[in-house]
């Protein structure tokens, strides 16, 4: 509730804000946040056409959508930027934090956060930055192909006779190189291969001169040299055609391009990099004073070694002279040694023969003991004994089995039908091998068989006699 002072009054139907009657208050146009941002975006995009803007990249991001988001800044301010995938796919370089670029963009506003931003449609490295980008791209490409590998680099000759210098014949570099070579190694022969070292046409001519000089095979080592300058001035030594010519060269190449802080693609491909042209001349030229000092040292050492060798040879000659004896005496000594050797050889041979005889006798005795004939005789005796024991065992077994079988045979014979047949009875069967027990079962003319104790009779029924007998007169029949 609004506090009331002594002069404050609340009039019914009147706003407490403007103190006007509510029916007299103007109609309010209330903006939503979305509407405000949308109209602000339309105002910005309609007010500013496509603009070119230059700045340094920071906070560069590449999400999975393929769009790029980054900040462009200068010394006093910064602005958010977005570059959509359909635009950034056309760029020939990949932006990085710290890169200085020139961009063509639309001024806009991101409605979701109400942030002022630029929609970048095209970008390119600004000033020297483009050359830096091309330098890094070529460097990565050639490194991936192996042009910078140490295994491809050739060692410099320790004592070259001819040095080739590939450079401008009027520049300061050639004067510095010749001055160093004259001072350090005046005996060296120098061949100058003139080429332009600056400008758009310089790189192809440098590459062609490298190939020509290498084909002529006049030099032991090449110096590829140029004085200092800006990145644009040194650019011919960053061209791919020069790098590939250096890599294909069979003669070692020393790169001496620019100042100590300057690096070019030629420095990475060359067999050796020198920080300056003068330093490249020093690398390939042995110092005359050092060579003279080395020669004096070698001379002194050679004199010492020669004197020591002569002294050793004199000592050896004296020792051999003392050992030298008359050939006749030497022959007598050798004849005596030969007789001694023959004597020892004879005794040694006799002793060896005696040992061999003893060994032969011992082995013959062992061989006789292990002879197969003795073993066979022994085994035949064992076999005969086993056969006798086996035959005796079989006879004993047969006797026991026969003694056990006789009572069983007698009992079996007592109940066997054969015993009945022995008493004169016969077993009669018809043509179907059925036993005939009743004469009425046969007919006159039937063929029957009679089994006797020994053999069979084949008969033909010629008559049938039927006898009436009482049951008690039939043998074996119960009453």
- Give the end-to-end Cα distance, rounded to a whole number of Å: 149 Å
Question: Gyration radius, to the nearest Å?
Answer: 66 Å
CATH fold annotation of the domain at 133-286: Rossmann fold
Query: Got a strand count?
Result: 13
The neighbouring-strand order within the major sheet is 1-2-3-5-4
Q: What assembly state would you assign to the polypeptide chains in this entry? A: single chain
Shape: flat
Let me know the CATH homologous superfamily of the domain at 133-286. Answer: Succinyl-CoA synthetase domains
CATH class of the domain at 133-286 reads: Alpha Beta
Uncertain runs are 1-18, 470-479
What is the chain-wise order of helices and strands? HEEEHEEHEHEHEHEHEHHHHHEEE
What is the helical fraction, as a range of percent? 40-55%
The overall pLDDT, averaged over residues, is: 84
Report the major sheet: 5 strands, mixed, barrel
């Amino acid at each position: 509730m609004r506090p009331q002072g002594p002069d404050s009054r609340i009039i019914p139907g009147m706003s407490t804000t403007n103190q006007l009657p509510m029916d007299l208050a103007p109609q309010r146009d209330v903006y939503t946040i979305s509407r405000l941002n949308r109209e602000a975006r339309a105002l910005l995009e309609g007010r500013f056409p496509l603009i070119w803007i230059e700045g340094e990249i920071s906070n560069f991001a590449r999400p999975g959508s393929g769009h790029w988001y980054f900040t462009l800044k200068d010394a006093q301010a910064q602005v958010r930027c977005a570059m959509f995938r359909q635009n950034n796919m056309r760029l020939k370089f990949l932006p990085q934090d710290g890169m200085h670029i020139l961009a063509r963009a639309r001024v806009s506003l991101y409605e979701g956060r109400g942030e002022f931003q630029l929609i970048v449609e095209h970008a390119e490295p600004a000033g020297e930055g483009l050359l830096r980008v091309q330098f890094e791209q070529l460097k990565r490409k050639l490194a991936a192909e192996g042009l910078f590998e140490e295994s491809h680099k050739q060692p410099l000759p320790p004592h070259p006779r001819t040095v080739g210098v590939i450079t401008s014949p009027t520049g300061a570099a050639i004067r510095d190189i010749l001055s160093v070579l004259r001072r350090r190694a005046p005996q060296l022969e120098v061949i100058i291969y003139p080429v332009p070292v600056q400008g758009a046409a310089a790189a192809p001519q440098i590459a062609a001169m490298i190939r020509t000089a290498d084909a002529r095979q006049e030099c032991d080592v090449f110096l590829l040299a140029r004085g200092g300058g800006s990145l644009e001035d040194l650019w011919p030594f960053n061209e791919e055609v020069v790098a590939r010519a250096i890599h294909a060269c069979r003669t070692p190449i020393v790169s001496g391009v620019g100042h100590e802080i300057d690096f070019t693609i030629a420095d990475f491909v060359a067999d050796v990099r020198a920080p300056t042209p003068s330093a490249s001349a020093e690398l390939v030229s042995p110092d005359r004073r050092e060579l003279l000092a080395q020669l004096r040292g070698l001379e002194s050492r050679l004199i010492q070694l020669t004197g020591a060798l002569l002294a050793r040879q004199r000592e050896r000659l004296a020792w051999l002279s003392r050992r030298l004896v008359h050939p006749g005496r030497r022959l007598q000594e050798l004849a005596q040694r030969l007789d001694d050797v023959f004597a020892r050889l004879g005794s040694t041979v006799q002793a060896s023969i005696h040992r061999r005889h003893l060994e032969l006798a011992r082995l013959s005795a062992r061989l006789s003991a292990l002879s197969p004939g003795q073993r066979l005789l022994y085994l035949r005796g064992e076999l005969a004994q086993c056969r006798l024991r086996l035959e005796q065992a079989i006879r004993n077994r047969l006797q026991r089995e026969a003694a056990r079988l006789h009572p069983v045979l007698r009992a079996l014979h007592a109940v066997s039908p054969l015993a009945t047949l022995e008493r004169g009875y016969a077993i009669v069967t018809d043509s179907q091998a059925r036993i005939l027990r009743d004469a009425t079962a046969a007919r006159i003319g039937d063929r029957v068989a009679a089994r006797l104790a020994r053999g069979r009779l084949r008969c033909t029924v010629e008559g049938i006699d039927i006898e009436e007998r009482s049951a008690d007169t039939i043998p074996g029949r119960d009453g």
